[in-house]
Design a protein that fits this description.
Layout: E1 8-14, E2 18-26, E3 32-40, H1 43-55, E4 60-64, H2 70-77, E5 82-86, H3 100-112, H4 124-156, H5 171-182, H6 203-209, H7 216-246, H8 251-258, H9 266-276, H10 286-292, E6 301-302, E7 305-306, H11 318-329, H12 337-349, H13 351-372, H14 397-406
Parallel strand pairs: 1-4, 4-5
Antiparallel strand pairs: 1-2, 2-3, 6-7
Helix pairs in contact: 1-2, 4-7, 4-9, 8-9, 10-13, 11-13, 12-13
């Protein structure tokens, strides 16, 4: 018989419009009495759910992480109850025997025996930072899409300024593009007055590259894209200002992360804090943190045969961020250790596996830095500046004779030399 971990607990089946809650109370003989009740997801009714749990002296609650619908329930129960938010794949019911009531009872039974691993839920302030930083990532993606649309309009209009300048959206390039949009009939204007001093020698080439035909529909599209581009820039700036205010309590931890050789942008450090928090006791070890972030191979073995061991799809936000940091750290001259490790793994496994391994190392460093409250220690990652010399082994005469004898050759007695 399984051990009863929580004699009084609750399983909640969460939906958009209502939740089904089942309280299971187990007596000393091991018999569990279930009471099920339905509540709507309005705030008033969720407070009624909390009062109902209090009336049963229930402080241990388990529910699925169903989309965003678990957030309202968690917000109400967080202060009074110990809430376990479970990944649906760990608590999935049997197909064909599923009802809302049975699902809530199943959750209650699993939680009663302590069989449900809890998802990582950071504190409220960290969750707010996480939400804003994820939205910032989306805004940056939208801004990149608008850049691509503007570049496409220039290309189909035979304006090939991107072939000459390094940044189509630099100050000099945007002056030229805005002049073309405002004066579509002005074909022979002097571009040298709009160029930076370092680009004066490219004036003639740039003049040839903008000799195109920008039609009115393309010009109208570009104006809309540029306006949207500027608005997104403003919204990103607003989000960043809000995040900086929220992140004030975590400035010491942000400084620790910024001591890593590949992280120079404060918003990169804030994004990492927003994803993993600052309390590393939430994870059993650094290995569990790396597994949670989707940076470790999976275990998939059956009948003694190992199947796919590729990394999981977890860490949809922190994994790409750490991979970007890994791509930066392998170019760092300040700490060449990561580059050497990358080159060693790349020779055997290729770039993709090597860069994931470096991202794994960075997250491992971040875990121990936050856990010990210490900055990155470069002395632990020092490498020899002088490569080790490979000396060829010396073969003596006796060793050569013995080797030939093992191959089947007969060696006559050599006259001794005095």
């Amino acid at each position: 018989m399984l051990k009863i971990v929580y004699p009084i607990c609750c399983g909640i089946d969460v939906h958009k419009k209502f939740v089904i809650a089942t309280v299971g109370a187990t007596d000393k003989s091991g018999v569990t009495d279930y009471q099920t009740k339905q509540f709507s997801t309005f705030t008033e009714d969720l407070h009624n759910l909390l009062n109902w749990l209090k009336s049963h002296n229930c402080t241990n609650v388990c529910m699925e992480s169903t989309g965003k619908y678990w957030h309202p329930v968690f917000n109400i129960l967080e202060d009074y109850c110990t809430v376990v938010v479970a990944n649906p794949k760990y608590v999935k019911g049997i197909r064909g025997k599923k009802t809302d009531k049975k699902d809530s009872i199943w959750l209650c039974d699993l939680h009663k025996h302590g069989l449900v691993p809890s998802s990582f839920i950071p504190p409220l302030l960290v969750r707010q930072i996480r939400d804003l930083m994820r939205y910032r990532v989306k805004l940056i993606s939208f801004r990149t899409s608008e850049k691509n649309r503007i570049q496409n309009s220039l290309t189909v209009s035979n304006i090939m300024i991107s072939n000459v300048v390094s940044d189509t959206f630099g100050v000099s390039s945007m002056k030229i593009i805005n002049h073309i949009l405002e004066n579509p009939n002005d074909k022979g204007f002097d571009v040298s007055q709009m160029l930076h001093s370092s680009m004066k020698d490219k004036a003639e080439t740039i003049t040839k590259s903008i000799d195109g035909n920008l039609t009115k529909p393309q010009a109208d599209k570009m104006r809309v894209c540029l306006s949207h581009f500027d608005n997104i820039d403003k919204h990103i700036s607003d989000i960043e200002n809000t995040v900086l205010k929220l992140a004030q309590p975590y400035l010491p931890q942000i400084e620790l992360i910024l001591s890593l050789p590949s992280i120079k942008d404060i918003f990169t450090a804030i994004s990492i804090i927003g994803e993993i928090g600052t309390d590393m006791s939430a994870f059993i070890s650094s290995k569990h943190l790396c597994s949670w972030a989707g940076l470790t191979p999976q275990n998939n073995e059956s009948a003694g045969k190992k199947k796919s061991v590729r990394v999981s799809q977890a860490g949809a936000y922190i994994k790409p961020l750490l991979v970007q940091c890994a791509n930066a750290v392998i170019k760092s001259k300040k700490c060449p250790y990561f580059k050497e490790r990358y080159e060693l793994i790349k020779k055997r496994r290729g770039h993709k596996k090597a860069i994931i391994a470096i991202a794994h190392m960075l997250l491992n460093c971040i875990y121990h830095m936050l856990d010990r409250n210490e900055p990155f220690n470069y002395d632990l990652y020092k490498t020899d500046s002088k490569p080790k010399q490979n000396y060829s082994p010396k073969i003596t005469e006796e060793m050569a004779i013995r080797y030939l004898q093992t191959l089947g050759y007969q060696i006559p007695d050599m006259p001794s030399t005095t």
